[in-house]
Amino acid sequence: MRETARGWTAVWLVVLALIQTAAFGLVWRFAVHTELGQWLDTVALTGNRIGQDRIDGPVDTILNAMSVVSLLAATAVIGFIALIRGRKALAVTATLLIAGANVTTQLLKYYLVRPDFGIDPERAAAGNSLPSGHTAVAASVAVALILVLPRKLRVAGAFLGAGYAAAAGVATLSAGWHRPSDAVAAYLVVGAWAAAAGLVLLFFQREQAVVEPGEAHRVAGAVLGGIGVVALLVSAAALSWLVDRSTIPVEALGRRPLFVGYAGSAAGIVGMVAVVAALVLVVVHRLVPRWKG
């Protein structure tokens, strides 16, 4: 029965990895290689100017906190938490998750090509920006934290980590550093790596592992996932409302559509990271179970 449960968990993780990889491809194809996708991203980036003076301080604080040094420090802390729990395989896997997600993000950003449709001439020279490196840093640390924290702290860690990763994604949009699709794509990269890390943890799972269904964080996962789904639906409604105005040049749009584009995109960023974190939270008890004795 234990082997059967592990087998089904492995199948579920493979499905999640494939779904998130396919979703990444769809986001990239629509947001980068279609005129409508580029137009929607540009509307959101232009709308970030509304009320920007009020949030410049917090945005700068969030973004300045994400550097190579801070990433290394966070990775070291996460590895230390796993090691003091006696989980060597978990420490290595969590570190590989963070490193793999961030290296993948940088490689994709470098090799993916963004065609110029003349929609965003101000940023055309910058080229491709998908996925967002800053967002990948925050999301990978948040997901790794869910994996290494003990059971009693996982729910708090999941909500705090998802909130931090969401704030990072919205901050890159608010600062004009990244398009909303860049942040969404980064979450999907991290989610796919999280599924791969789960498969590694299953492979190295010890015989004395005890998986108790009662230890699953179903309620917290449902709440976090529900928040994500609602936010994604709000985003879809906002962007659908904008589609009818896609024939209007971005610079000719009024304050209302620009705000709808910005707020709707921010909701999509929040929704995506909440769903990714919820998927990790509801399966983590099978990946990092208790030990006998």
Total domain modules? 1
Q: How far is the first residue's CA from the last residue's CA?
A: 21 Å
Number of helices: 10
Low-confidence stretches: none
Radius of gyration: 20 Å
**Global mean pLDDT:** 90
* Principal-axes shape call: elongated
- Listing every helix as H and every strand as E from the N terminus to the C terminus, the arrangement reads HHHHHHHHEHHE
Q: Helical residue percent? A: over 70%
The percent range for strand residues is under 5%
Protein name: PAP2 superfamily protein
Domain Phosphatidic acid phosphatase type 2/haloperoxidase: 90-198
Pfam families: PAP2
Transmembrane segments: 7-31, 62-83, 90-112, 132-149, 156-178, 184-204, 216-239, 259-284
Textual characterization of the structure:
The chain is mostly helical. It has one domain. It is built from ten helices and two strands, in the order ααααααααβααβ. A two-stranded antiparallel sheet has the order 1-2. It is elongated and about 65 Å long.
Compose a concise summary of this entry.
This protein has 293 residues and is mainly α. It is built from 10 helices and 2 strands.
What distinguishing features does this structure have?
mainly alpha, 10 helices, 76% helix
Task: Show the helix and strand layout.
Blueprint: H1 2-33, H2 35-47, H3 52-64, H4 68-84, H5 88-111, H6 133-148, H7 151-174, H8 180-203, E1 209-210, H9 218-243, H10 255-287, E2 290-291
Antiparallel strand pairs: 1-2
